[in-house]
Amino acid sequence: MFRMKNSIRENNSILVLSEIINQPEISRAMISELTGLNKATVSEIVRRLIDDDYVIEIGPGKSTSSGGRRPIQLTVNKKAGVSISFEVRYDRISYLITSLDGEKLDYTIEESEMNKDNIVDFITEVVEEVKASIGDIPFGIIGVTISIHGIVHENKIEFTPYFDLDQIDLVSLLSERLDMPVYIENEANLSALAEAAFDNEHKSLVSFSAHTGIGAGIILDGKLHRGYKGRAGEVGHTVLYPNGTSCPCGNQGCLEQYCSTKAVVRKFQILKGDPSLTFDDLIDSYHQKDSSTLNMILQFAKDFGIGLMNVIGNYDPEVVYINSELLEEIPELISLLQHYLSMTIYKNVPLKQSILGKKASLYGATVMNLQEFLHVENVEFSLNMEKVLEV
Ligand SMILES: [Zn+2]
What does the record give as the function of this protein (predicted)? Predict the structure, then answer.
């Protein structure tokens, strides 16, 4: 789990450190109670853990019921470890390095095509560079989590419609090269974990991601809902038009064939008869109020609204976060979608633009690393948003 050096070579020290990792904060007396070690032993071990930077004191906790002196609380030193997150799309890979409190140390986007032949080398190289740059900090790299645009089940990629990563066992290949935990998870699921970590108000939420494909990440009562085979929230493959456009999933007329960013750009190219047109051209055309583009976007909004209502109807979230490049560029569409909802039984469900945007699944991957390392179900970030959002 964590590297053993200096103060934590013997079992009792590991026991004490595990208790501190397992709780947001804990007192020496509580550790003694939970481990069965006597108070003097716990105090001596804690002193060494503090000296070696694994643990810090965070001041007095709440008063005891008997009104006694408030004990000093201990917590893990959040600067003593590093989390690494990757997000892999068919046309680019990005990564985020943070300390254990989520503070950003590095964020990089590389515009290069990732496939089964180059991804293991790429990730290994980045991780080795990070390892060399952080030097000998107590916990080192606590984990590497990779966000995938596809269906992931039990750390295996089951289906990726737009690249070939489902042909390799990515976690096994990386685990052979890296001596640290490696996890993979669906992009929309991770985005939902990130929204939940920044949103202290809602316990049930949906993160609706529309990029190359479309997927929803679902948090119910504070827990990520994956489904039996990791397919919960695969809203992109719910059918909008029976007998419509064929989809790599095996169905016809799936939502993502009409509403993913990729599909909308393709539709714009067909509309204008020019296959070289880009996403930016589409946005320019919309802002120039080109009538055929406006009509196309209106149809997009109607289709998108149906997908949205299907998810809301299935999972009944308190709030929906929308993560889409297209809606980021045309934010008035959120009000239009909210208007569609207002005419239905879903009228009270607020739609929010994700402010994390492109970084959502990377922060979600950080949450996953922290959940696994700290053995906690929920992670809450209290970060300076300006720092989170700066590139
Ligand atoms: Zn499909």
Answer: Transcriptional repressor of xylose-utilizing enzymes.
The answer on 219 and 347 residing in a single domain is: yes
**Cα 252 to ligand 1 centroid, rounded to whole Å:** 7
Do 30 and 113 share a domain, yes or no?
no
What is the tens place of the pLDDT at every residue in 110-163?
998 899 999 999 999 999 999 999 988 988 999 999 999 988 999 999 888 778
206 CA from centroid of ligand 1 (Å): 20
Q: Which domain holds residue 44?
A: 6-76
Q: What is the 3 state secondary structure string of 341-391?
A: HHCCCCCCCCEEECCCHHHHHHHHHHHHHHHHHHCCCCCCCCCCHHHHHCC
Give residue 8's pLDDT.
Answer: 52
Residues 341 and 307 in one domain: yes
What integer is the mean pLDDT of 333-340? 96
> How many angstroms is it from 241 CA to the middle of ligand 1?
11
Calculate how far, in angstroms, residue 123's C-alpha sits from the geometric centre of ligand 1. Answer: 29
Residues 33 and 127 grouped into a single domain = no
Whether residue 310 sits in one domain with residue 214 = yes
CA of 155 to the centre of ligand 1 (A): 22
Tell me, yes or no, whether 159 lies in a domain.
Answer: yes
Q: Separation of 250 CA from ligand 1 center, angstroms?
A: 6
Tokens of 152: 């992931």
3-state class percentages of the chain: helix first, strand second, coil last, to nearest 5? 45, 20, 35
Same domain, 16 and 138: no
Note whether residue 377 is domain-resident.
no
